[in-house]
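Researcher: For the annotation table, I need C-alpha cells for Cytochrome c domain-containing protein. Please keep the output clean. Sequence:
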Amino acid sequence: MRQGDPVLWTILLCAALAGGARAADGEGEPASAAAIRDRAAQAEADPALQSRLLQLGRKVAVVCAHCHGAHGIAARPDAPILTAQKRAYLLEQLQQFADGRRRDPLMEEVMGNMSVDEMVGAVLFFSAQPLRRPAGPPPAFSADAGSAGRPPAPGTSTAAAR
Ligand code: HEC
C-alpha cells in the first residue's frame, strides 16, 4: 500500500461515512478522555451494552485496519499491533490521544472522526481478536519500511518519537 495523503483521505472518508451511521444512532458525543473512561466502565458493568459496542467496534475496525492491520500485523511500519492487546492498555492510549498527553497527527485526525462508543467498541473488538502470525519468515528490520515508503522512526511506539 502506498502511503500518503490520498490514503489518509480515503480512510477519513470512510470514517465520515461511519459517522453518518453514528449520527443516526444518536451517539455523536465527542471523545474526551473522561468520556472514554466512563463509557468503558459502563460497558464493563453492562453485558448488553458491551455486546452492542463490540458490534460497533467490529465495523469501526475496518477503518483502523488500514493502518493497524486486520488480524495481527500492522499495515504500516509505524502503526502498532492492536490485535490481542490488553483492553486497559488500548483504552489508556486512546485517552492519552484524546487529551493530548500522547501526540500523533494520524491518530489525532482519526479520533476527531470517532465517537466515544466507537472508540470503546474498537478496544473491545481488537482486544478480543486472536493474534495469528502470518506464514513465512519474520520481517526484516527494514523490509516493512521499504514497502511503506518511509522508514520507521526510532521508538515509534512512543509519542516522543515525533
Ligand atoms: C491513518 C493511519 C491510522 C489509522 C486509520 C488508525 N491509526 Fe491508530 N495509530 C496510528 C499510528 C501511526 C500510531 C502510532 C502513533 C505513535 O507513534 O505514537 C497509532 C497508534 C494507536 C494506538 C496506540 C497503540 C499502542 O500500542 O501504543 C491505538 C490504541 C490506536 N492507534 C487505535 C486506533 C483505532 C481504534 C483506530 C480506528 C478507529 C485507529 N487507531 C486508526 C495510525 C492510525
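Researcher: And a one-line annotation?
Model: The pocket of heme C is lined by residues 8, 11, 60, 63-64, 66-68, 78-80, 82, 90, 93-94, 104, 106-107, 110, 114, 122, 156-157, 159, 161 (CB under 6 Å).
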